Queue: 2 jobs
Job 1
Amino acid sequence: MSATTGVSNTFPDDPDASRHVDVLALSGAELLRFVLDAPKVWEALARCSRCGFQVLYLGILRDQRVSCMNCGDGFYELLDAAWWKNAANRMRRACRQDRTLLPAVKAEWEARHGDVPLPSFPESFAWLNTAWDTTDKRGRSFDARRHYELAHLVDRLSSGGISMNKIATILSTADYVVRQEIYDTLPGRVHRWLGEQFRTELRNLPYVGSKEELLRSVRWAHRQWTDPRARLRGERVRPRAKRGGITPPAPRP
Ligand SMILES: [Zn+2]
């Protein structure tokens, strides 16, 4: 039985924030992304009374005693309605304080889910449905998939022994035949590792403008994988300019 897997993010590369991020430590803005990540999280998020381990447990009852799978000593407790009401108010305040927050979150939603509408939220969160409908998404949709795809690809190619420079050269070559020519110069052990089919696969590999662009994608994806809270903060591949268009000065060495 896997009652804990009833709700999950539809985006398999994303780390499961409900498992790895302490919900009690989140800011209003982070809570907003957290709630949009896991449908019905306010009904299903249970925390261990002893160690704080979190699970999404659909169908758990308020008075049910389910032992924690992490420490074995504590029991899961649902966060109560008052806690979620307070959380919803903090999310709302965050949206008021930063007018770019909801438009950015809306763009992220559309990049992930296409034109799937926002689900209907219960009373405490109902303001979100209204605000959502009157918000325009901000800028171009952010395509997280592409960055994850590039990071997987780089992992695969480097495990075959191809250097980062060579990977960047291949991916920043648009012409498929030239890609193959570069690939053919690689040692036989690389070809054996990647398999016979790989030479034809080169046609379908994504194109990147430069090595720097590739490195930015890879760094971003690895950070998302190792720090689930990075996504709740809405970290981008390129750091955003500060509001008002002023870029902060570089820190002193
Ligand atoms: Zn525990």
Job 2
Amino acid sequence: MLPDKDGPGVGGRQSSPEGEDLSVSLFREYLRLKTVHPDPDYDAALRFLDRIAEELDLPMRKIEVCPGRVVAIMTWEGKNPPLKSVLLNSHTDVVPVYQEHWKYDAFSAFKDAEGNIYARGTQDMKCVTIQYIQAVRRLKAEGRKLMRTVHLMFVPDEEVGGHKGMESFVKNPEFQKLNIGFALDEGLANPGEAFTVFYGERNPWWITIHCPGSPGHGSRFVENTAAEKLRHVMNSFLDFREKEKQRLNTSECFTLGDVTTVNMTMVKGGVAYNVIPAEMDVSFDLRIPPTVNLQEFERQIKEWCKEAGEDVTYEFAQKHMNQNMTSTEENDPWWSAFSAACKAMNITLEKEIFPAATDSRFIRAVGIPAIGFSPMNRTPILLHDHNEFLNEKVFLKGISVFERLISALASVPAFPDEA
Ligand SMILES: [Zn+2]
């Protein structure tokens, strides 16, 4: 059955025949679509979004940024279309599940007696997608027309690095045409009363250190072995790891996003018990805050390699150098609109650097300020985890939060260069 034009949550049709809020029903319906890697059903998501666009009476454009990878954009034109627009971004894909560790089918969107909805994507980030949609639906139903244009963007492949999604799309001329001034994207739940907002991200560096050495028979004391160099390299990285861990644990105002994490993830080398190998390699996953001088940090790595011995070299599999951070200064017009709207709702914000990576990094890299915000307080952080859930009350509150935020952001007065 198609909902009427005003759709769920407004116009007197607040609940389904079973007494469930229609926004919750819509959320659960979206959670049941298997947009799960490694073979996400993107067609199902696009069909769903087509229907929503029709309900909201908004034009939707689809741009195939890579073969089989479509970015969908619904546009709510503002009263003054030449002004910079507001982007509401969300990704449609979700990470795989280990069903045997789940209490319920991860794609059934089961709701328990407390109103907790269990499904992959409840937190990351199908909740936000539906909250954006329902917030815009309500604003439209109230007859509001905002000054700036609002784009709702739905991107594929965030969970596999965004290369065939947002990373490609920001380079597409169609992205430029959206004339985006400010973007909202995903954040993380907060177990306490506050809500977390993210204004930057750590840079992932995946590095392999090659330690060549003199080969020989396993019965002798061979000089200059690969293993000795490997030990040196490991010590340098893991001592640094210990220091960063200390720094995180001894400072009350530090979160994971403020320190560099170091993890040794792979070791390779050797052919037989009695053969001293000609090379041993070790790989690390580093996540570096945008506040760190990255050039200096690389010099430090080079130094560690030099200290480890002759001909020790390094190679990057991934090296992000993005140090863009979105302003959270009170004189920034976007941030001040965002924070004032939160203040008006008595929401406490905790500002953090995102510990992992999201599509926001591609948005910031092209010079657009972006805030990561998923309005989920009183909720354990369960993204990518077993039994990911979100309580329906928290979900519903988030719609009201976005209603205020979208209205505030799309009402930011024209800047001098926009007049
Ligand atoms: Zn996500």
